[in-house]
Specification:
Length: about 270
């Protein structure tokens, strides 16, 4: 079935999803609503209808994507609730649980909540998704195709699983940025140009991730490149002396806890 998708919010994530989906799904009809005509201007080069009227955008949509900031989601959702007619609603808002969305949109609404991450802007995103019990197989496939257009997807069964998704892939790009920054600074301190150090480090991160995604266990890969008495062994023992694995574990737990707190702040319905 040809999808007719309305994006409410044409900011960074709305643009990435709309442009990504358009490039992957032939024949899809896309409308983007945003009160800012500046934001809508960047959709001009694409075959996308734009409007400043959210209700107009959803009028004949089969799927509605809520891509506004979490702080205004309640206002936007409540305003649209009476104008929905069984369409699938997909929320990309961080920290707003399905229970809150059901309260605002009506508990018979099919809802998919998802957590994408910033590499989605380059089509390399990782998105965790959960669906409520109103979501049919067909609607689930539509949500899957939409998020797959900007990267990889993984489905979960519980809303609370998205707190862990947030702590791993949602906030995760920043952990790798921090690692890359630290390695680059070390390379520069050893006399390399920043440009060369950045290229060496980022390509290494990309290659290491590709080897893991190819199916190898990261622990096995690590052992395979760690010759006894060699350079890698020296570096890893220094990381281990700094409690590397424990520190990363604490960081991920901290992010998960903060995700739970944020849900309580603006997501209680
Ligand atoms: N960016 C990310 O990496 C990322 C990752 C995961 C999840 N998300 C989620 O994606 C959502 C959007 O984030 P973003 O980074 O794309 O934010 P953004 O760039 O600020 O985009 C939100 C857009 O919604 C517009 N908007 C405000 N009020 C509206 C209304 N009443 N109706 C329709 N549109 C309205 C905003 O316009 P104004 O500029 O006038 O406010 C803005 O253009 C958030 O809920 C966030 O949690 C983002």
């Amino acid at each position: 079935m040809t999808q007719s998708i309305a994006f409410i919010g044409g900011g960074n994530m709305g643009f990435a999803l709309a442009a990504g989906y358009l490039a992957n799904a032939e024949g899809a009809r896309i409308t983007v609503a945003d009160p800012m005509t500046d934001q809508l201007a960047r959709f001009e080069a694409l075959p996308i209808e734009v409007t400043t009227d959210n209700r107009h955008a959803i009028a004949d949509a089969t799927t509605v994507v809520l891509a506004v900031k979490p702080q205004i989601l309640e206002l936007v959702a409540r305003d649209l609730a009476a104008h929905l007619d069984g369409q699938l609603v997909i929320s990309v808002a961080a920290g707003v649980p399905i229970a809150a969305l059901e309260t605002w949109l009506g508990d018979s609404t099919p809802i998919v909540r998802c957590m994408p991450n910033t590499p989605a802007f380059l089509g390399k995103g990782m998105t965790g998704l959960v669906a409520n019990s109103n979501v049919t197989d067909e609607a689930r496939a539509a949500a899957d195709a939409l998020l797959r257009a900007v990267g990889d997807v993984e489905w979960f069964t519980q809303d609370s699983d998205l707190d862990t998704v947030t702590a791993l892939s949602g906030s995760g790009p920043a952990y790798f940025f921090a690692m890359i920054e630290a390695m680059v600074d070390a390379g520069v301190a050893l006399g390399m140009t920043r440009e060369s150090a950045l290229r060496l480090t980022a390509r290494t991160a990309e290659g290491a991730a590709a080897m893991v995604l190819d199916g190898e266990d990261p622990g096995v890969l690590r052992v395979n490149v760690t010759s006894p008495g060699g350079t890698t062994e020296r570096a890893l023992s220094i990381l281990q002396n700094g409690d590397f694995a424990q520190t990363v574990g604490q960081a991920v737990n901290g992010a998960r806890d903060r995700s739970v707190e944020l849900k309580e702040e603006f997501g209680n319905g």
